Amino acid sequence: MNFFDGSLYPENQQKLVITAAPYGPEWVPSDFPEDIAVTMEAQIQKAVDCYNAGATVLHVHARELDGKGSKRLSKFNELLAGIRARAPGLILQVGGSISFAPETEGEVAKWLSDDTRHMLAELRPAPDQVTIAINTNQMNVVEQMCPADLVGTSMAEPAAYRAYREMTIPAGPEWVEEHIRRLSGRGIQTHFQLATISQLETVERMMRRGVCNVPLILTWVAIGGGFEAPNIYNLANFVRACPDGAVLTLEASMLNVLPLNMMAIALGLHVRCGIEDNLWTQHRDRKMSTVEQIEQLVRLSGEFGRDVANGEEAREIYRIGTFYADADETLAQNGFAPNRKPGQKGLTQHAA
């Protein structure tokens, strides 16, 4: 991405797209009973509340009545249908992990089988997006968390802590390419959740081979533990590596969420918040609901002079429903240099 004179002026930036992650599958209801929705009606209402507060993308996980994260596609179908009916303006983004929460005490937190994850392409009603990880990777979500982040929560228990500390993401190349093919075939957009520049480079190579003909809509997930850390050097390197046609959202963990989101607002990027990422105010004097976090970002974006996108504007920014015919169109629309033609020497660039 290029930042030249005027790039930080709000009148030259896209409106802000706010992604809300209100379901927090890693937590149990007793961790934040005031904000963790359990019944289906409460889960649907949570989506409505997030939309009314200013979020236009909803990161969807479902919860069973016993409080555990749901791994049933039927439960997701019910939730998606309910949200579509009550908040049709929301971009529905299903978490590609389904629920990585451990089913019983002492179990490792893990994603479901490859075949089961492919079934996300069969959800009805179809979501707008499904998130996807690239390259099998460690996902130790507690590495950057301190005891104050976990005090009084279920994740402070040794068994739960170990379960999330040892979690990995299965995302080998054969599965990834097949998953993108199935999602695209159903008109569902792939949303890339990337931990490092090397994963971005893998996405570019897939696009160059013509097996990933989709817009580059992505989130930089800076949570440590196999992912990059949310510092300014890593951020600058990742932003610089993204082509100009990419749409980039930033994601962090716990008290890193707000500072990183403020950087995103200033740079013209997009933001994510919610109890899946952070439970606390910056002073850790109390827990902070997802709606409160959204309202905070709306307020801060207003102070920066940057308007917040509505549902229709967010769909346009995210290019929902857009797919490309081949590698050449994909590279051009995403802002990558074109593939080298046979016999062509030197660096490549798109024709004016």
From TrEMBL:
Transmembrane keyword on record: no
Any single Pfam family the record assigns to this protein: BKACE
InterPro entries given in the database record: Aldolase_TIM (IPR013785), BKACE (IPR008567)
Keyword vocabulary terms for this entry: Metal-binding, Transferase, Zinc
Cofactors (names): Zn(2+)
This protein's record includes keyword Transferase: yes
Protein name, per record: 3-keto-5-aminohexanoate cleavage protein
